[in-house]
């Protein structure tokens, strides 16, 4: 596996790959890799000849009070895991390489307006602008045939799919099912922040989604009923502060009152100093996006 930190070096290397007629996959990450990331890499490797994984903690997508400075970083460990997963190139730019004038001096942004303003966008106002901008930059640098994202960040996937469509970017966006711990907690680099009591509490997030699935399966279609049932489960645990629970249309993230054929049931909660998100997509014919949820450990 090659480790490349300069944009020019990566472009030169990938030009050779393309000349040989090989296809390229990109897995954008912020590092501190876990099994969820490795699932993206394995899928990318199955679908394409060459896999590029980027590791870049993007300052543009963190709010002023958020965890940019303390976000976990361990490049040596990440490099070992990525190499073992069959990754060909690890792209590890410094902030000055991605934002040569400094990220505070950026003048050009990609903003997928309404889609970035709902759900997580309410409490993280510039987050999706930061995500879309850095992902657009990575798409221009790597020019991948396919790009792989975790379904855990459902809104991120929807934002990026729309950006790709609106800006005619020639890449296939692939969403890979959420990987979970044995008790259902979705894997996240931020899980490392949880104390043992908080970790215990965090399993209720998945339990609340599971209850929503059960209610939907039993024919409940009133979103308010589903949300209040989920709140009831989460209220048991004083460590959990709900940011939002949303039942929306995955096409445009508009809230649904009466659930139709498809629903994105998504939530965000603060547990101690850690903000966690999770979701499931429910389809009338197929039930939950199963096949979807994988369990680790
Ligand atoms: O999902 C993430 O880790 C980040 O939002 C991404 C897509 C790598 C952009 O910085």
Put the structure in a nutshell:
By secondary structure, the chain is an alpha/beta fold. The protein has helices at 7-19, 35-47, 75-84, 95-98, 113-117, 120-123, 127-142, 154-166, 196-217, 223-235; strands at residues 2-4, 24-29, 50-55, 89-91, 146-150, 172-176, 179-180, 240-248, 262-271, 274-283, 287-288, 294-295.
Descriptive keywords:
4-stranded antiparallel beta sheet, 297 residues, binds pantoate, Rossmann fold, 10 helices, alpha/beta, Pantoate--beta-alanine Ligase, Chain: A,domain 2, 6-stranded parallel beta sheet
Explain how this protein is built.
This protein has 297 residues and is an alpha/beta fold. The chain folds into two domains: 2-176, 3-Layer(aba) Sandwich (Rossmann fold), CATH 3.40.50.620; 194-289, Pantoate--beta-alanine Ligase, Chain: A,domain 2 (2-Layer Sandwich), CATH 3.30.1300.10. Helix content is 38%, strand content 21%. The strands form three sheets. The protein has a six-stranded parallel β-sheet, sandwiched between helices. α9 (196-217) runs antiparallel to α10 (223-235). Pantoate (PAF) is lined by residues 28-30, 58, 61, 131, 134-135, 153, 156.
List the helices and strands and how they pair.
Elements lengths: L1 E3 L2 H13 L4 E6 L5 H13 L2 E6 L19 H10 L4 E3 L3 H4 L14 H5 L2 H4 L3 H16 L3 E5 L3 H13 L5 E5 L2 E2 L15 H22 L5 H13 L4 E9 L13 E10 L2 E10 L3 E2 L5 E2 L2
Parallel strand pairs: 1-4, 2-3, 2-5, 3-4, 5-6, 7-12
Antiparallel strand pairs: 8-9, 9-10, 10-11
Helix pairs in contact: 7-8, 9-10
Bound molecules: pantoate.
The site of pantoate has 10 residues, from β2 and α7.
């Amino acid at each position: 596996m090659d480790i490349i930190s300069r944009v020019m070096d990566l472009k030169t290397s990938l030009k050779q790959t393309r000349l040989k007629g090989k296809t390229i996959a990109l897995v954008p990450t912020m590092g501190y890799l876990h099994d969820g990331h490795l699932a993206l890499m394995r899928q990318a490797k199955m679908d394409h000849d060459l896999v590029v994984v980027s590791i870049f903690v993007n300052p543009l997508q963190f709010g002023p009070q958020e965890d940019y400075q303390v976000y976990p970083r361990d490049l040596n460990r990440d490099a070992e895991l990525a190499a073992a997963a069959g990754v060909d190139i690890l792209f590890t730019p410094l902030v000055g390489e991605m934002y040569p004038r400094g990220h505070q001096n950026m003048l050009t942004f990609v903003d997928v307006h309404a889609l970035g303003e709902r759900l997580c966008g309410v409490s993280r106002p510039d987050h999706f602008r930061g995500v879309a901008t850095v992902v657009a930059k990575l798409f221009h640098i790597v020019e991948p045939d396919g790009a792989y994202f975790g379904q855990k960040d459902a809104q991120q996937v929807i934002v990026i799919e729309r950006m790709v469509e609106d800006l005619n970017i020639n890449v296939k966006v692939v969403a890979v099912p959420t990987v979970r711990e044995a008790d259902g907690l979705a894997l996240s680099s931020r899980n490392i922040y949880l104390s043992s009591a908080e970790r215990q509490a965090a399993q209720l997030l998945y339990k609340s989604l599971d209850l929503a699935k059960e209610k939907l399966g039993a024919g409940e279609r009133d979103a308010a009923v589903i949300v209040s049932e989920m709140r009831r489960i989460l209220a048991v645990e004083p460590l959990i502060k709900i940011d939002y629970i949303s039942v929306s249309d995955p096409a445009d993230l508009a809230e649904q009152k009466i659930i139709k054929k498809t629903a994105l049931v998504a939530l965000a909660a603060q547990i101690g100093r850690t903000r966690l998100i999770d979701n499931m997509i429910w389809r009338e014919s197929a039930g939950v996006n199963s096949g979807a949820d994988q369990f680790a450990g």
